[in-house]
Amino acid sequence: xxxxxxxxxxxxxxxxxxxxxxxxxxxxxxxxxxxxxxxxxxxxxxxxxxxxxxxxxxxxxxxxxxxxxxxxxxxxxxxxxxxxxxxxxxxxxxxxxxxxxxxxxxxxxxxxxxxxxxxxxxxxxxxxxxxxxxxxxxxxxxxxxxxxxxxxxxxxxxxxxxxxxxxxxxxxxxxxxxxxxxxxxxxxxxxxxxxxxxxxxxxxxxxxxxxxxxxxxxxxxxxxxxxxxxxxxxxxxx
Length: 238
Hints:
Blueprint: E1 4-6, H1 9-12, E2 16-17, E3 31-34, H2 39-42, E4 47-53, E5 58-64, E6 75-76, E7 79-80, H3 87-90, E8 94-97, E9 107-111, E10 117-118, E11 123-124, H4 134-162, E12 166-174, E13 180-189, H5 191-195, H6 199-207, H7 211-220, H8 223-237
Antiparallel strand pairs: 1-9, 2-10, 2-11, 3-5, 4-5, 6-7, 8-9, 12-13
């Protein structure tokens, strides 16, 4: 069970973070949360899908790394095999701490039981004087960007739903060895409806900055074939 504590120089002056990318470091996940402002960076490498969160009755934007739970096909001998790592993965093992007082400042929180915490190795988060390092400052900025983007994404989803631009996705994948994988429970942007959107609808998406990320999400669907190719290659190398 995660042990979340606020980062501070008194308790974490000598703490170091390992940057290796592997299953043992907690990177074995099929997908991660993303947000519209990140779509441009993602679409070169990852498939962007949408999934309904039953508890919140709201859609999440996701960057896909695999075709089944616990699978990350971008892990390669301790590194991440893409030039851009999604923010939700890049900031691990840190997160934003949300205080009960909504007016209070959010804090940088760390899972003190994370395997990323090094024993004398890794990136320091405070220097010898207890001053945050450039690494921690970078993490803080990324967390702020991720948190703001995630909270703002609900308005983007509402706009897509307003114009009925989300449709269910179901894909059956048969591997060369006969193994079958089925990708279900996700949604994509309906390309035809987007292209036939009324002038009013297009103007709204454009004015709110939602048109570009929508086309980025559509373009990212071409990466599904690349994801399948990664899975085929992983099966050969087992």
